[in-house]
Specification:
The protein contains nine helices and 15 strands. The chain has a five-stranded mixed β-sheet with strand order 4-3-5-15-6, with helices on one face. It has a five-stranded mixed β-sheet with strand order 11-8-12-7-13. Strands 10-9-14 form a three-stranded antiparallel β-sheet, with no helix packed on it. Strand 1 and strand 2 form a beta hairpin.
Length: about 300
């Protein structure tokens, strides 16, 4: 972890009197502040703060560490700048983590215009469907589709994703077409392994309904589930943007069309609101504008 940032976090905790206040001052999540404090205590090899429910106070090693931290920050701030004017041109490399669906259907199409506007930016894209530790894995931006976002994470909502229940005609020929949500219990429902296993949520008027479903196939990639659905394995909940061409061609049939799956949020997760690289800020703003024009 960055020792300069860690020392600034430690100083801010001491001066503000709490980790919650330091997190707010620095634009970080509280868990990130706690992590920096733990790292600097590991470097010092000693406990630097007495923690109680009412206040924080410095230990003797903490008092010594505080002085060294202030000196380190002063030295860093006294380093002459290479240029007199801050260059806010988006440039450099951004490391992005994304699911296959979000990368293929949202990020890659959006990057075409982004690269035209910001040709000095390079992207390192990591395709994965599980949660990622932004700090440990040096990820600048993680794209996540969810409705259960950890409140400790720093995130910006980029848009909303709508889904549709669908099945292949070959599957519905041998299975009775569902008429109500409870009928799904008698069907093979193909579920996404990394998302609320076995629970599908629907909007019925003003209320939200939850239906427990089962099936003999789970996967952590929506494209795999789409392929299985097309081959007649069962019913799946697919992103409408992906399923619509197959619905239009009759290769898939919408199931329970009067019931609407609850929409999911598309979020961009990043490490800190302060000192955000211009390239990252420009990309997030661009994604917000781009997704607003899509029928997700």
């Amino acid at each position: 972890m960055d020792r300069i940032i860690a020392t600034k976090v430690f100083i801010n905790i001491v001066e503000s009197g709490s980790m919650a206040a330091a997190a707010q001052n620095l634009g970080m999540s509280r868990s990130m502040v706690t992590r920096y404090l733990g790292e600097i205590e590991n470097w010092a090899g000693a406990r630097l703060l007495h923690r109680s429910t009412r206040r924080l106070s410095l230990t003797p090693p903490g008092e010594q560490a505080l002085e060294h931290c202030k000196e380190l920050v002063k030295i860093a701030e006294d380093i002459p700048q290479v240029v007199n004017v801050v260059d806010n041109t988006p440039k450099g490399t951004l490391r992005i983590s994304s699911s296959h669906y979000a990368a293929e259907n949202i990020l890659i199409p959006a990057l075409q215009q982004y690269y035209q506007d910001h040709p000095k930016v390079d992207i390192e894209l990591e395709i994965r469907n599980d949660a990622v530790n932004l700090v440990e894995e040096r990820i600048d931006l993680a794209l996540r589709i969810t409705n259960t976002l950890d409140p400790n994470l720093i995130a910006r909502k980029l848009g909303s994703c709508h889904s549709v229940l669908c099945a292949a005609p070959s599957y519905l020929k041998v299975k009775q077409v569902p008429q109500i949500l409870e009928d799904l219990q008698t069907h093979s429902c193909l579920t996404y392994a990394n998302f609320e296993k076995g629970l599908w949520h629907f909007k019925e008027g003003d209320k939200i309904s939850t239906q427990k479903v089962t099936g003999n196939l789970k996967a952590n990639d929506s494209d795999v589930l789409l392929t299985a659905t097309l081959q007649g394995f069962g019913i799946s909940m697919q992103p409408r943007q992906v399923a619509q061409p197959y619905l239009d061609k009759g290769e898939l049939v919408q199931v329970l069309p009067n019931v609407i799956p609850k929409e999911l949020g598309l979020y961009g997760l990043y490490q800190s609101r302060q000192h955000m690289p211009p390239a990252l800020r420009a990309l997030i703003d661009h994604l917000v504008n781009y997704t607003a024009q899509l029928k997700l």
